[in-house]
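Thread: Modeling a multi-component assembly for a lab meeting

Hi all, long-time lurker, first post. My supervisor asked me to bring a structural picture of a complex we are working on to next week's group meeting, and I have zero experience with this. I have the sequence lines for every component (224 residues in total). Could someone generate the structure of the whole assembly? Inputs are pasted exactly as I received them:
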Amino acid sequence: EAQVTQNPRYLITVTGKKLTVTCSQNMNHEYMSWYRQDPGLGLRQIYYSMNVEVTDKGDVPEGYKVSRKEKRNFPLILESPSPNQTSLYFCASSPTLNTEAFFGQGTRLTVV
Amino acid sequence: AQSVTQLGSHVSVSEGALVLLRCNYSSSVPPYLFWYVQYPNQGLQLLLKYTTGATLVKGINGFEAEFKKSETSFHLTKPSAHMSDAAEYFCAVSEGASKIIFGSGTRLSIRP
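Re: Modeling a multi-component assembly
Sure thing. I ran the full set together rather than chain by chain. Output:
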């Protein structure tokens, strides 16, 4: 089944404790991205990647890192999480930018 | 710069009534336009998209949207609402650049 898989689905952590949210897609898509969803703000892009080893900042990259060592994986790294990073995070992939994006189920992160 | 405005953060209609969710965009070049739906505790899934060609686009679950260049609009409609349509809906625009811009979302409630 074609899908984007994020893990974990739910995470509660403490300020400053490094964490990684994994994202994997099995559709051989070149384009992958991370979004955060906050009430009233819709989805805002954090980082995106147009291919292996090619990543760039989105609208809200501060406090986040990504890597794209393999085509299928695009992990999101929070080196030192802060409470303002409490949010719902989505990973998405698509063959190219202007085609349908496939979204993961989301990761609800709470930083206390 | 491209942007998306969804009018109305919350829309409530009676079951069987017309659904109209409004979306206006700004774009300096012909845009690609999308509507996504998000059910509770799930990721986003594509309802429909406009790329080129016919301006009336039909999507899944009986939804359709019309691209009106002169009004820079891409409103989503459904003739008869069903209880299962209750969800959050996002309009999005892409200019073929590096990202897709999402609107802030409209929550659709259906009254019995």
